[in-house]
Design a protein that fits this description.
The chain is an alpha+beta fold. It has one helix and ten strands. Strands 3, 6, 7, 8, 9 and 10 form a six-stranded antiparallel beta sheet that branches. The longest helix is centred in the N-terminal third of the chain and has 71 residues.
C-alpha cells in the first residue's frame, strides 16, 4: 500500500511540476512577445518623429533659401522691394515661394485646394521639391542606404508623410500693400507621419493622414513668418 501511495504522489507531483513549468513558459513567452511588440512600436514612432521633423526642416529650408535667392536676384519679379511701412527698407515679398516655383505659396491663401502636399527627393540632383503634379501618394519607401523617400521599390511601404499648409491671414504682421498677398501672413505647417503595423489602422497611399484615426501617427507643427522683413 505504501508503495502504491508513493507512486500516486509521484505522479501528482510530476503533473503539478509540468503545470507550473507550462504556466511559467507561457508567461515568459507572452512577456517576450509584449516586449518585442512595444520595442517595434517604439522604433517606428522614433522613425516617424524624425520623418515628420524632416518635413518641417525641408519647408523651412525653402523659406530660408528664398531669402538668399532674393538677395542675389536681379529679376524684377524676385528682387527685393522697398516697403512703405518699413520706411522704404527692402522686403521679401516672395519668401514663401518654393525654390523652383513649382508651388506658388503666394497664390494659395486659405482656403486652398492644394494645401495637402508631399515633398519628393531627387537622388540624382540631390535636392527637394514639391510634387509638381500634386499626386496624392504619401507613401515612403525604405531605400538601400537606410533613408525613406517617395521612390517606390520592392520594399513594402510602412510609413507615409503628408504636409498641410494653412495661412493665418489675420496675423499681426504688416503687409506692403502690393500684389503679393502672402507677404505679410503667417504660415502654419503640419507634418503628419503615419505607419502601418500591428495595432494600427490600415490606410491607403492617398488617404488624408491628418484626419486618419489611428494610434500609429505623429503630428509636428511649425509656424513660419517672413520675419526678415520686420527684424
Amino acid at each position: 500500500m505504501k508503495y502504491k501511495s508513493s507512486q500516486g504522489q509521484t505522479l501528482i507531483e510530476t503533473l503539478i511540476a509540468i503545470f507550473i513549468l507550462t504556466m511559467a513558459l507561457t508567461t515568459a513567452l507572452g512577456l517576450v512577445i509584449y516586449v518585442f511588440s512595444n520595442s517595434d512600436r517604439a522604433m517606428k514612432e522614433i522613425i516617424a518623429t524624425n520623418l515628420a521633423s524632416e518635413g518641417l526642416d525641408v519647408i523651412r529650408m525653402f523659406r530660408d533659401s528664398n531669402w538668399l535667392i532674393q538677395d542675389a536676384s536681379n529679376d524684377s519679379q524676385s528682387i527685393l522691394q522697398p516697403c512703405p511701412e518699413l520706411n522704404g527698407q527692402n522686403c521679401y515679398p516672395l519668401v514663401f515661394n518654393s525654390i523652383d516655383n513649382s508651388f506658388d505659396f503666394a497664390a494659395c491663401l486659405n482656403p486652398c485646394s492644394t494645401t495637402y502636399q508631399r515633398i519628393i527627393f531627387d537622388p540624382v540632383a540631390g535636392n527637394w521639391n514639391f510634387d509638381t503634379n500634386h499626386v496624392a501618394d504619401y507613401d515612403l519607401y525604405l531605400q538601400p542606404d537606410g533613408t525613406y523617400t517617395d521612390q517606390s521599390n520592392s520594399s513594402p511601404p510602412i510609413f507615409a508623410r503628408m504636409l498641410y499648409f494653412v495661412y493665418n491671414v489675420n496675423s499681426t504682421y504688416p503687409t506692403t500693400g502690393n500684389s503679393y498677398a502672402a507677404e505679410g501672413t503667417e504660415l502654419t505647417l503640419q507634418s503628419v507621419v503615419a505607419w502601418r503595423g500591428r495595432g494600427c489602422t490600415d490606410f491607403s497611399s492617398s488617404q488624408n493622414l491628418l484626419t486618419l484615426s489611428t494610434p500609429c501617427k505623429v503630428i509636428q507643427e511649425d509656424h513660419l513668418t517672413n520675419w526678415k522683413d520686420y527684424q
